[in-house]
Amino acid sequence: MRTRHVFHAVDSHTEGMPTRVITGGVGVIPGATMAERRLHFTEHLDHLRTLLMYEPRGHASMSGAVLQPPTRPDADYGVLFIEVSGLLPMCGHGTIGVATVLVETGMVPVTEPVTTVRLDTPAGLVTVDVQVEDGAARAVTLTNVPAFCMGLDLKTDVPGLGTVTYDLAFGGNFYAFVELEALGLPFDRACKDELLAAGLAVMDAINASPDRPVHPEHPEIHGLKHVYLAAPGSDAHHSRHAMAIHPGWFDRSPCGTGTSARMAQLHARGLLPLDRDFVNESFIGTRFTGRLVGETQVGGVPAVLPTITGRAWLTGTAQYFLDPDDPFPGGFLL
């Protein structure tokens, strides 16, 4: 067997969305914080992301996480969230997948009925409570980084769609919220290509506008890669959506950071109070339950403290190789 690299992985899915957890083979990434490690990985190791996420080892909607030693004493593991679109500051479904993998493989001490896992992420410390029964993770609740609304009723001109009104919020990543009824498009998986094209067009227009988002405290977190296309009838109790993601795919899960941002947006509109459950439903019908448990500020911007509850399942283990003669050392997308 010939290989230039060996990467060890545990694969999982969170409410339909994959998380490939890389448990070994990358080595310790330089950086005093996970944010610095994210920057180093992006600048020097991004070929590993594409190798592990792109075809032929992954696919156009692949997502994963790279485990690292933590950079802070109050965390169990450091995590970098990798996917086809890039290296995310935070990933909700990925956090649920990572926590499930850590518990069910015994990589953290397990206590029943609840095991608490603390993850050091580029967006900050994320605390996760895993409900454990007979050694199995039954549900995972994460306390996310603060979420906040950046703007309501913003407008952008989108080729082919005209002037589009949207809200902008942050829940670990930036999200634009658009009502499908306003676009004249149906919430129908049979029309997924049309929906995806609309979401990407809105994304491109916002990123080219003066309202392109920049985090108020962490300017290295900037730009929009997610557009939440809200289905008709969605409200502050139960919201259905299709999440269009750069460079061109839909989230299969209800999206954890997107659920956090959605709750921040609804709270900013006065529609979602603290301590009330909110159900966020994905394009394939899977669900996360969110709740706002407090208020704070981020860079002078009013913010909320979100929790997200969902489930994940292990799907396999693997070792990934790179043959010296492989014609696609960085993978490819079709």
From TrEMBL:
One Pfam family here: Pro_racemase
**GO MF:** 4-hydroxyproline epimerase activity
The record's annotation in InterPro entries points to: Pro_racemase_fam
Indicate the family of this protein. Answer: Belongs to the proline racemase family.
Protein's name in the database: Proline racemase
Q: Which organism is it from?
A: Streptomyces mashuensis
